[in-house]
Amino acid sequence: MTTPLNPPKPHASIILGIESSCDDTAASVLCDGKILANVAASQSVHEQYGGVVPELASRAHQSNIIPVIDQALKQAGISHEQLSAVAVTQGPGLMGSLLVGNNVAKGLCIAHNVPLIGVNHLQAHVAALFIDHEIALPMLCLLVSGGHTQLIWVEAIDSMEIIGSTQDDAAGEAFDKAAKLMGLGYPGGPLVDKLAKEGDATKYPFPDAHTEGLNFSFSGIKTSLLYFLRDKQKEDSAFLEKEIRHICASYQHQIVASLMKRLEKAIKEKKPASLGLSGGVSANSALRNAFVLMGKQKQLPAYIPDFAYCTDNAAMVAMAGYHRFLQGDFTSLDATPYARAAH
Ligand code: KG4
Ligand code: ZN
User: Fold this and answer.
1) Mind listing the pLDDT tens digit for each residue in 24-67?
2) For residue 305, how far is its CA from the centre of ligand 2 (angstroms)?
3) Is 176 close to ligand 1, i.e. is its CB under 6 Å away?
């Protein structure tokens, strides 16, 4: 048998990632684990309602998704024919939104005869940490998003276990609901974060909830803000306007303290090799500072994704999908999206 003079290079693994679980339509192209393109179209239509309106989200995904995918492929310099697989967020999320991404992904798979990889959105947020980072494992990951607040024990990018969860609201929801109460826009997290930078975080103490084990609870702090504002505004109708920076700083301070308290407890119990922070709320500046400090105090590497991979994005979906692709772990074309985490 003769060896060809110029043997073809082993085929690169090129994954198209698609994310449409909530209100961001996103596509990303990943080649052998490296991000070539990461494109997202956010939906401003929800701002006027102070929250995501599911039907409007589905309609916006429908008009955005093909242009977003085309742009990602163009930026990456990749044609449809070069794709090795399509990874898509299968759930949890809004059903109408998920259906748009999943059906487009299936159409591409059928058209180009490549496998479909249905990715769990929460696992994708953890996979975001593996983009551009060599992670020391096992890692203890604090996942904080608009819909979830969890402590996750990560043995590998595709092997993880939830060891703590919120009993009611997620941390991101606590930010968003507070912003709504104070008449700020949506999503509220970044707005509270911005105002908090100019406020005194110790001025107004807010309570932490009592929870069992490594669980979280954020519905109490939101209610305490509601009553606090009602009482103070009775005394002085201009109270909110005058004090908003201190209120934001104090409220944010307590959310961060509640998160750090459970993280520290989990570190003591589980003794991880590293720490991770992911999900949309990981863009919060006070949380990032507290998390980095925790890593220093515990002498553990503390990883946070690049800003582009904190809030919902398709690069994290492609990254989770890439590892599944290498293992040949594919999803059947008759699989349906799932709205809830436990399905
Ligand atoms: O992960 P993500 O983009 O979507 C979900 O999977 O839910 O997270 C969105 C959440 C929203 O609640 C938003 O207010 C929050 O992340 N968020 C922030 C910041 N940036 C985004 N919360 C606090 N501070 C921020 N800078
Ligand atoms: Zn998310």
Assistant:
1) 899 999 999 999 999 999 878 878 777 788 889 899 899 999 99
2) 13
3) yes
